[in-house]
Amino acid sequence: LLLKNCRAAVLDERTVIKRVDILITGRKIAKIGKQLKAEEAEVIDCSKVVVIPGFVNAHAHTPLLFLRGAADDLEFSSWLKTVWQKEQRLNRQEVLRFASLASIELLKQGTVCVVDTYLFWDAIAEARKLLGPITYTGPGLRLQPRRELPDAGWLEACRQGYVRPILSIHSLYNINNISEAKELLAQVPADVPVTLHLAETRQEVAEIKRRYGCYPLELLEREGLLRGRKWLLVHCGWITSREVELLRKHKNSVLVVHCPSSTMKLATYGFLPLKELLQAGIRVALGTDSPASCGSLSMPLEARTALLLYRHSYWTAELTAQEVFKMITSTFFEFMNIPAGKIKEGYFAHLLLIDDVFPYLHPFSSRRLVSHLVLNPFYRIKKVII
Ligand SMILES: [Zn+2]
Question: Which end of the chain is more exposed for a tag (fewer CB within 10 A), N or C?
């Protein structure tokens, strides 16, 4: 595939070049340059097109779109109770339908990769394996709304087509005890990452302190769980400065996932210390959480929200659109050691073609483009390449 004469290509958050060709061979970017030729290649005229890296949603439960709008005016604890109640009645066929529906929404909004864990994870895997987007999913450990532990064939089922495996531990409060989590992790290969909701609410932190006598991250550290495996720690809205130090200590094995819209919509008042995390060199990616908790699955909208929340909270404009653009494009892949998330030779071609420069990306200039992409995210994505 040859993307010919791209009006502009956003190679990464800091580099925009104009009038360039991109040659894709197999699933990778083979060459970037002027006037490239490839006899056999299908050619797309990109003279009116902006090409950018695709978006990553590092935390979602997309089948929950069936409850979008159903409990929009509830605060976290009553919201969760309502959701768990309604989830009891769900069956696999419904999850398959909602996960398929969500695929369309994700792809239309330019999400090329999503971490998507939920009940009937195998239905999510089935919905995504042929169509995409790339989906990290898998079974999990939880008590509510019901237990659904990994079975023997789960890893194999999560390594087909666009599907990749991840283990989900719902949270430290929604399991029997930490030894249960340790036992499960001991059975899962070390290269499988784990996602965990952590310190989302003040009540959760109080509950963990009551049960274990320490803060959530201190518990993970005490149990030796942060070594030897990659963790996606979601929310981290109520962590102490001591816990930020622990994250710094394990920064190669932890990715903090910030879901600002969900946090604000559910009024958890959790405040992820983004400034302190970034200063400590800890990677932070963005996620929407579920369509029932956030209302949307749009990653550029999440990036916009993260940028505005940061500036509003810290009274400084030091966080830039470029930095949050990185959080929704390359941060996750970099953490997972996967060559993707940038337009670079040898990298996977996970690309978006945007064809309506006017009016949303106007006035059009290389210097302003990433700012437009983050702050005015209503452009139409014409084509998604994964
Ligand atoms: Zn979640």
Answer: N
